[in-house]
Each structure stands twice: as C-alpha cells, then as structure tokens.
Queue: 2 jobs
Job 1
Amino acid sequence: MQYIADLHVHSVASGHAYSTVTENVRAAAERGLEIIALTDHGPMLPGAPHAYYFGNLRVIPDMLFGVRVLKGIEANIMDRQGSLDLDDQRLAKLDIVLAGLHTHCAPHGSVAENTEMLINALRNPWVDAIVHPGNPEYPVDFTALVQAAVEYDVALEINNSSLTVSRKGSLPFCHTIAGLAKQYGAKILLGTDSHFAVHVGNFDAADALLAQHGITEEQILNTSRERLRDHLTRRGRVVNL
Ligand SMILES: [Zn+2]
Ligand SMILES: [Zn+2]
C-alpha cells in the first residue's frame, strides 16, 4: 500500500514528545510523504499546550519542505457526554481534529459506559477520527462503535504505535476493529502517533494488520489526497488539499 500522509504526529509541544515541528515535517519529506498532520495533545493532558497553541498554528506555513502541513489536534474526550478539551471556535479553524481517550482526562468505565462515551464523541461535528480505539484501558463494544463510525462518517484509527511501543495489549482489539471495519465499510485513518521524528511515516505494523483483513486503499484516508479532502470537507470545513 502506498501511503501519502501521516495524520497523527506529536511535537515537543505535547510535553512528552521529543521532536520539533520542523524536524517532523522534514522527516515526512525525507520519507516521501505529501501530507503531515500536526496533532499535539489537547490542553487537558498533563504537559500539553494551552488552547492558545492551537489558535496560533496558522503561523506555520501550509507548505514546508514540499509537504502540506495540516494544523490539527489530538483532543481529549473529557466525560461521558463526549466533550472535548478545546472550544468549538478553535476546533472550527483547524484542518483536522482527532479525538481519543486518555488517562487523566477520560473517566474509566464499564464497556457500556466507554462505548457511550466514544459514540457521543463520534457525534461531535468537529471530530474527524477517533484515535487508538483499541486501547485495552478502555474496553468498548466494537460492533457498536464501528456501526456508529459508519453512521456518523467518522474514521477510526489504526495506530501504529499501539502495535509497537504504546498501549500494550492493543493488538487483538485492533484486529477486531479491522475485521469489523472491513465488514461494515468503516473509514480507516492511519497514524504513526510519532513522538519522535524517526517514526514519522512508518506504518509497517498497521499495514501488515490491515492486509490480514483484506482492507484495500479505498477504505484508508492516508492513500489518496482526494479521499482525505473529501472526508475533511464533509462538514463544510475548507481544507486546501
Ligand atoms: Zn493518544
Ligand atoms: Zn497521539
């Protein structure tokens, strides 16, 4: 599979990542990527930047080293209602909004409670994708989640870090998600979730997993500029891609 975009990347601004925006974008260029999304953690995660950081991303050029730079966030889901940790006005100005469950932000609950929380986040019109839904710390009803993702036209991430360095125990859940995504036709977003620039654009583990489930490029946002643009503009967001 040919991937043109890494849509989940952290910089030093996240507080526990180790490369600058410049280093990340340069790494994307060296890997031959056309697009990178800057998705630092939302303000409520310990060490993450203030909301001002996301409001000021416009100072970064849209093109850097020949790579289209999308300004985004990995927002924290904060409660069972699916609230995010950035206001709608700032979310509206971003190019891409990822949302996910993180300890210190999202309450841990039962399968039913976790599923309700994620589905409520899916219904937020600013959310483009749910990241690392296979996190074993937050077990969910995957059939209900995938069906809701299709209904609300939100992508589900297969997170390369979950299969390599983070969130141990994610693998079987990611297989379940991939199998259901194939069955129901859910959109897939791939992210390296890179916290250091050498990982930008490396989807080896996620690619192998998707191949086992026969998922083809038509379902994956990272394989086509047009497919990504169509997804990001579906709620009236203007993204020049
Ligand atoms: Zn995350
Ligand atoms: Zn992340």
Job 2
Amino acid sequence: MRKLGVAVIGTGQWGKNHARVYKELPSTELVAICDVNAERAQAIAEQHGVKAYSDSTKMFKDKSIEAVNVCTWSTILFKEAQKALNAGKHVLVEKPMATTPQQARKLVQIAEENGLHLTVGFLMRFIPGLQQIRQSVMDKEIGELVCATAKRVSQWPERIGDVGVVKDTAIHDIDVMNYLYGEQPTSVYATMGSMRIKKFEDYAQMMLTYKDGRTAFIESNWLTPYKTRTLTVTGSEAIVRLDYITQDLSIEQKTETVQPRTTFKEPLKAELQHFVDCIVEKKKPLVTGEDGVKALEVATAAIASSAKKKAIQLKN
Ligand SMILES: NC(=O)c1ccc[n+]([C@@H]2O[C@H](COP(=O)([O-])OP(=O)(O)OC[C@H]3O[C@@H](n4cnc5c(N)ncnc54)[C@H](O)[C@@H]3O)[C@@H](O)[C@H]2O)c1
C-alpha cells in the first residue's frame, strides 16, 4: 500500500494528537513536524522518530511531504496554510481556518487554482451520532426539522489567547448547524461579553435563522466549571439528542425513546483517514474549504451583531 507522506505544523496540545494519529494510521508516513518552539518540535519529533523543524519554509522543501496539517495558534493558521498550499501541499487547516472570511476564501482560491485538497478541522462531523442525525434529518425520520440547540461550555483553556469563544469554540456548532440545515443562515443575532477574559468574549449566545424561518440556537462559554458538549434537534415527529463527549445518541418519539448503539470512534482518526482517502482517491472531502469560509462568515457576523446590538443579514 502506498503511504502518503504527511507533516504537522504546530505540535501543541492539539497538533501533537495529529502527529500521533498519523503515526498510527497504516496509510500515512509521518515525515516531519514543525513548531516554532524548537524544544517542543524536537521532543515530539524524537517521540515519533521523524525530522523536526522550527521553520515551515524549510520543511516544505521536502518533496516526500504531500499533505500538511496546520495546527498553529488560530491567528497563524492562515499564514501557514497559505504557505503550505503555495508549496504545493494538500492542507488540513484547523478551525477557525483564518482570521477573516476574506483570508479563508483566499485559501479556497489557491487550493482550487493549484488542484490541491483543502479541508477544515470540523471534528464534530466525524462523530458517528452526528452523521446519524444528519441522515435522519435528510430522510425526514424526525419529521420536519423545526429547530436545533447546541451547548458547548467549559472552563477557559488558558493557552488560548488569540481568539474568543466564538471563533474558537462555537464555530464547531455553527458548522454543525449549517451542515444540518444544508445551507448558511440568512441572519444572525448574538449577544456576548467578556466576564473573565478581558481581550475577547468568553460567553456568547447566538440565534441563526435559516430559510423559512427555521432556527438554531448556540450557547457557548469558557465560564462553566464542567464541560458540556450537546446537540438537541427538534423535529415535528421526534427529538434527537447527542452528547459529543460520550457519543451517546437518543431519539425520543411519541411512544418510545430509543438509544441506537454506535461504535465509539476516535473522531480525529476518522477525520485524518478521510483526509488521506480524499487525496488518494481524488474525492471531495466531507468538510470543504467553502464550509470553513461559511462558518467563519457566520462567526464574524455574530461578533458584529453583538457589537451593533442588531441582527446581521447574510447573503446565501
Ligand atoms: N478541531 C478541534 O477539535 C480542535 C481542538 C483543539 C484545538 N484546535 C485548533 O488547533 C489549533 C492549535 O490549538 P492548540 O490547543 O494545540 O494550541 P497550542 O497553543 O497548544 O499549540 C499551538 C502550537 O503552534 C505552535 N506555533 C505557532 N505558530 C507557529 C508557526 N508559525 N509554525 C509552527 N508552529 C507554530 C506553537 O508553538 C504551539 O506549540 C488552534 O487553531 C485550535 O483552534 C482544534
């Protein structure tokens, strides 16, 4: 079996998992890792027996590296993803993909012009229960989709100092809502504020309105002492609940509640395997670069809505 040569840029809390998973997948050859923290780069590289770099420009010269995962601080993602694409590498860029939707769109454009794969780290899509929910929405097993509510709350992960809770955390739920409704909202209304972290918002409530007035509500914060990550989808015939942490799914119908059994899968492993399969088999990824642009547009509109204290209309 041909192994795809891969590398990871940014091997902090999350990127080190990307490196570990690539080492575990039979279809990939982890060639190198890169982190501006040279000591960290060296330690992770030694752990996996691969080359360490602290400057990605040098690493990109290695032609055996075909795909790169960009897992740097959120405000550096665009710069490194752009460099990787310009060096001819396929790219998985972590969320929020870029700082502005314009930058995110630029990544999509460079990838398209160069025939490269570009995907965004929307990990929730790789949780089997979410796939089941999306299927039951599409097949109308829950009747008509009425509304969806997501809650993603926990304490502030202190290492995150360059974006607020909307672009870091709620963006997962924005993407999930767009995925369930199959489109971008037509308007966004949000309220948010900073209670503990002065530089960025650390709590946000947002309402997304889709075509025909159907809505999604997202609550996220970095103020809650325990971690909750849930999704409730209300249909005219049933209510579906997913706990992203346990991956438990339950479907409440008129007469009974069923709890379908799903095999627990490490979402990151499924995500990276899918990325590699898409490159090798030249398939469209489950999460496109365009999906990343749209989620970032909604996140940016939510921040503007809160500042202006009014709903922001979005072009679909
Ligand atoms: N999809 C998910 O579920 C998920 C989960 C966690 C984090 N993330 C995303 O992953 C990214 C990293 O998060 P984290 O928690 O690992 O942060 P972190 O601060 O622990 O790690 C970031 C690493 O990037 C390195 N870095 C910064 N600029 C660099 C550059 N130009 N070149 C090479 N290395 C560079 C830093 O030295 C650091 O080691 C963020 O964008 C975050 O949003 C996604």
